[in-house]
Every structure is written in structure tokens, then in C-alpha cells.
Design a protein that fits this description.
heterodimer; A: about 100 residues; mainly beta; 4-stranded antiparallel beta sheet; two-stranded antiparallel ribbon; 1 helix; B: alpha/beta; FAD/NAD(P)-binding domain; 12 helices; about 30% helix; binds flavin-adenine dinucleotide; binds zinc ion
Chain lengths: ~100, ~425
């Protein structure tokens, strides 16, 4: 069970949150010229790392706002939270 | 320390029988030979299988038995069956909706039906029936659609009334004012459970006796390629050359894909289960409910084996969050009030490889000689022999087995997905 630091409400129990999967997946520009393989990559392919994962969460039963979180998928350590649109903190920064 | 593979023992597997049991009883069971050898890795193989779970071991067995490919190694980073194979709740059935899945899971069930004999190893298959409950009008309609589709594929499937459910499972609460009223159920009579470790060990022993090297405590750390072709694998026990590499690592599929520069549509999630203290036999079939997210069967030891759905987040930690268990136990006790005072003995988690369409990937890859078999998610134990069967064919012939063809990786580009969320999301 995670204790998650909502950027607006502070530390709350995991059961108040919803999980939104991998963060920073940008919708590709020029959809009309995109190949099927590039569509597949955007829609389906995921990093799914063993280690630091940048992911989206929503405080569903609280302020109902979305934010990003960096979490280690092997240790379950929460490494930090940051707002949507902000670059990720730490060595993963600038990952887009 | 280096030891030569002991070819002397090849083919000398001792057949298990009532006579070998009696003979060994005379010797106080001190003279049983090892079920498989533990050779040091050879410098090169025709095929290296990465992952010593049920699927990897079954692949190696059928490569040797059906395709005559015996210069094969299975590399396992931990111990055999220590992944999802030894952590699952062992439900076996073939009642999937789409034709492609029906062919695959039914092939597997048929192999299971002859497996103890084929492997000379008792996998304790118990075809005690699998019930899927319907709690709402919508459930009922969806269930009858499925039952009819499944029957059209020639797979046994029946609809039970609430009274028939009660007759099959006397401890279930079917009263109309129950929190989750039981309006009916579907039943696959040929479904049931088997002993998970025995499936892994039986395949291991039978593969070993046909010359396959099974190498435990050997983690693959890299996949070497040369000009678009696979050359072998780096491991914690050195480089091992291979003409072909089959990757069957379940929850670690993305990690291995990354080593080969490939991307997969897979996310790894915790899936938890738990067992109760042992009690006398009270429930003789497997009972599942997709709507309330719980399922239960009773093991031969008398423990209730209880499972549910995945944790929402991705993970490689082999554990999940407690509220998932709390939720499934709440639902279980509404269905079976008699369980309310039972104590739970132990709880654990595996890491399951979830695909967007809840169907597996059995596929060649853009790297020549590299094959992936993954994405079985929450429901691959039932597919163990069938998966090995079609994957062995795919690797041996460098071309998909006809049953495996629709499950290739390119379906995410073509859009020909095989959506089995209704059959596989909670019910495993
Ligand atoms: C709690 C739970 C309940 C389940 N219930 C059911 C059920 O009732 N019915 C059903 O049909 N299915 C069920 N499943 C799913 C089923 O367990 C799996 O789909 C199936 O066992 C997968 O088998 P496998 O051989 O592919 O994977 P595994 O048994 O996980 O084997 C993969 C192996 O690869 C090894 N490995 C990983 N990385 C490396 C590396 N780098 N080098 C070498 N080896 C490596 C791992 O150590 C592991 O032993 C359940 C799963 C869980 C976790
Ligand atoms: Zn909040």
C-alpha cells in the first residue's frame, strides 16, 4: 500500500487514487502522415521499466486532479511527485 | 568448478510406476535418482530458452519430442517454476470467446488431459468443473452469448439456474436479498485445477531425459546480435552462443525486449492470491465471479485458494497492496457467509505480463532467430502445454504454428486484436 503525496492535498492513502499509466507520452504530430507502425508505438508500446517509472496518478477521491509521480517499480519507493507539464525531477529529467 | 555434462545419464530416466514406488519403499526412499541433471552450460546450443517456468520448459520438451531439436538449454535466473508457474491459482479451462483463443486454449486443455501419462509424472489434473457466476441481467445476457459462442467452437459449456448452482455448491448464498444475488452461472465441466509445481517439474524431467540442459541460477543479462541476427545471450555464467533464442519470461518480457532493442505492448502488474487454513472439503468445483472480482477453489490439502484481479500500478516487486485482498475477501464472504470466521494462512504475489487485448504474444521478432512468448498475463497456467506446443513449432520452423499465427506481434500494427477482457480480466 502506497502513501502518496498529492501535490495539493498532502500525503494520502493509495486507495484514494487512480493510476494512469506511463507519463509523458506525447500524441504524435501529423497524424494523417503517420505510419501504422508509428501509431502502434504510440497507442500500445510501453516502457514498462524495472526501476524508475514516470507515471500519472489522479486523486480520484480527493481533489480529483492529475499529477505525475516517479516511482521505483522494483522497490516500490516513491521518489517524488510533480505537476503535469513539469519536467520530471532527477536523472530522468528531460526525458520528454 | 567445471563439470562435463553427464551424457551417461541421458535417456536413463527412471520410469515412475507402482513398482518403482514399491522398490524405493524397500530402500526407505533413499535411492531415488534426481529428476533432472544440473549440467554446466555448454558454450553453444541450437536453441536457448530464457525462462524456466512452465511455458519455457514445455517449449523445450516439445522442441525435443516433436521437432527432434535436442541441443537445447533452458536458462532460469532463479529456480524452476519460481515465477508465476509456482504462484498461480492453477485454474484450467478453455471457455474463451473468440475462435483464435478457443483454438489455442482448447489445444492446451486437450494436451493437459493426456499430460500425466505423456510425461510419466502425475500433474494431479482434477477436472472438477469451473463455474462463472452471473449477478445481474446484463451478466446473464453476456453469459449466454459466450456459452453459445463457445459451444459453436465445439467446447463444452453449460448454463446453470440458481437452483443448479446451489446443488453444485451448497454453501453459496443464493437468497434474493443477498448483496450479490446469483442469477445463474456458466459451467465448463472439463475445467478444473492441476498441481502447478508438478507441471513445471514434469516438463523439466521429461525434457531433461530427451537431452535438454536445464540450467538454474543463470540469469540472462544481454541478448547479443550481429547484423540483425541473434548470436547468443550474456548470462551470469558467461556468454552462451545460440542459433535461436526463445524468450519466455512472463513479467520480465519488457526487460528482455529492451536487451534486444525491441518495444512490447506489455505492462507488468502484481497479481496476488492467498490461501486459508485447511478445512474439510466444502467446495467441489472452482467458483468465479467477474462482477464481484473474486474466485475460489479448495486444494487437496483442504486450503481455500482465493484470487482476484491485478493491482492497478506496474511493478516487479512480487507483492501488491492490501486493499486488493480486503476487497476480494469482502466479496467472497458475501457469496459464502460460512467462510467469515476462517483464518488466512499466507498470501503472495506474482508479476503478470498484461497485454492490451488480454491475449498472449507468440511471435517472431524483427531480430532473426529471436522469438518471444509472453503476454499471458493473469491466465497462462491453463495454456502451459499448448503454449509450449505452438511455440516449439514456431521456433523450430522459423514460422508460426497455425494456431499461434493470429497471436503475432504485428497484430498491434494491423489492428487485428483478440479482445479477451471478458474471459481473462478477473477469471484466470
Ligand atoms: C497469483 C496468480 C494467480 C494466477 N492464477 C492463474 C490461474 O488460476 N489460471 C491460469 O491459467 N493462470 C493463472 N495465472 C497466470 C499464470 O501463472 C502465468 O500466466 C503462467 O504461469 C506463466 O508461465 P510462464 O512459464 O510464462 O512464466 P513464469 O512461470 O513466470 O516463468 C518465467 C521465468 O522466467 C524467469 N526469468 C525472468 N527473467 C529472466 C532472465 N533475465 N534470465 C533467466 N530467467 C529469467 C523467471 O525467474 C521465471 O521463472 C496466475 C498468476 C498469478 C501471479
Ligand atoms: Zn489531492
Amino acid at each position: 500500500m502506497f502513501l502518496i503525496q498529492c501535490p495539493w492535498c498532502g500525503p494520502r492513502d493509495e486507495t484514494e487514487f487512480g493510476y494512469g499509466g506511463e507519463a509523458h507520452i506525447a500524441r504524435p504530430a501529423g497524424p494523417e502522415t503517420l505510419s501504422d507502425a508509428d501509431w502502434a508505438d504510440y497507442v500500445f508500446m510501453r516502457k514498462n521499466p524495472k526501476g524508475v517509472h514516470l507515471e500519472r496518478w489522479v486523486h480520484r477521491h480527493g481533489c480529483r486532479r492529475w499529477f505525475n509521480m516517479a516511482r521505483d517499480t522494483y522497490t516500490h519507493q516513491v521518489l517524488g511527485v510533480y505537476q503535469m507539464g513539469e519536467p520530471p525531477p532527477g536523472p530522468e529529467g528531460g526525458d520528454g | 568448478m567445471y563439470s562435463l555434462p553427464s551424457f551417461a545419464t541421458l535417456g536413463a530416466m527412471h520410469k515412475y510406476s507402482i513398482f518403482s514406488l514399491a522398490r524405493n519403499a524397500m530402500g526407505y526412499h533413499e535411492d531415488w535418482t534426481e529428476a533432472w541433471r544440473s549440467p554446466a552450460p555448454q558454450p553453444s546450443y541450437d536453441v536457448v530458452i530464457v525462462g524456466g517456468g512452465g511455458h519455457g520448459l514445455a517449449t523445450a520438451y516439445y522442441l525435443a519430442k516433436e521437432h527432434g531439436v535436442t541441443k537445447v538449454a533452458v536458462l532460469e535466473k532463479g529456480w524452476l517454476g519460481g515465477g508465476n508457474t509456482g504462484r498461480n491459482t492453477t485454474i484450467i479451462r478453455s471457455n474463451y470467446l473468440w475462435d483464435e483463443s478457443a483454438a489455442l486454449y482448447e489445444k492446451s486443455l486437450q494436451l493437459y488431459e493426456g499430460l500425466s501419462r505423456d510425461l510419466n509424472y502425475n500433474i494431479m489434473l482434477s477436472q472438477r468443473g469451473v463455474l462463472n457466476l452471473a449477478h445481474t441481467e446484463h451478466d446473464l445476457k453476456e453469459m449466454s452469448r459466450r456459452v453459445h459462442a463457445i459451444r459453436l467452437n465445439g467446447i463444452d459449456s453449460d448454463i446453470l439456474s440458481p437452483a443448479q448452482v446451489k446443488a453444485a455448491v451448497p454453501i453459496i448464498d443464493i437468497s434474493p436479498d443477498a448483496r450479490y444475488p446469483v442469477l445463474g452461472a456458466s459451467l465448463q465441466k472439463r475445467g478444473g485445477v492441476a498441481r502447478h509445481d508438478a507441471v513445471a517439474w514434469g516438463f523439466a524431467r521429461a525434457a531433461d531425459s530427451r537431452g535438454v540442459d536445464i540450467i538454474q541460477n543463470c540469469e540472462v543479462t544481454g541478448i547479443r546480435r550481429q547484423g540483425g541476427r541473434v548470436e547468443g545471450v550474456d548470462t551470469t555464467r558467461g556468454f552462451i552462443a545460440a542459433k535461436k533464442v526463445g524468450v519466455v519470461v512472463a513479467g520480465h518480457a519488457s526487460v528482455l525486449a529492451d536487451m534486444a532493442g525491441l518495444r512490447l505492448p506489455i505492462e507488468s502488474h502484481p497479481l496476488q492470491a492467498l490461501v486459508s487454513e485447511p478445512i474439510k472439503p466444502v467446495i467441489h468445483t472452482v467458483v468465479m465471479s467477474n462482477t464481484v472480482h473474486v474466485y475460489v477453489s479448495q486444494s487437496d490439502k483442504g486450503e481455500l485458494v482465493i484470487g482476484a484481479g491485478i493491482d492497478a500500478y506496474t511493478s516487479y516487486a512480487q507483492r501488491g497492496s492490501f486493499h486488493i485482498i480486503e476487497g476480494q475477501m469482502g466479496a467472497l464472504i458475501e457469496l459464502f457467509p460460512i467462510f467469515s470466521r476462517l483464518r488466512m494462512l499466507r498470501q503472495w504475489g506474482g508479476i503478470v505480463d498484461v497485454c492490451p487485448d488480454a491475449s498472449p504474444i507468440i511471435s517472431k521478432t524483427p531480430v532473426e532467430g529471436l522469438y518471444f512468448n509472453c503476454g499471458w498475463g493473469t491466465g497462462g497456467f491453463k495454456a502451459t502445454p499448448g503454449s509450449g506446443w505452438v511455440f516449439a513449432h514456431t521456433v523450430a520452423n522459423d514460422a508460426p504454428h497455425p494456431i499461434a499465427a493470429p497471436f503475432a506481434l504485428d497484430r498491434f500494427t494491423t489492428g487485428a486484436l483478440i479482445d479477451e477482457h471478458g474471459a481473462a480480466a478477473v477469471a484466470h
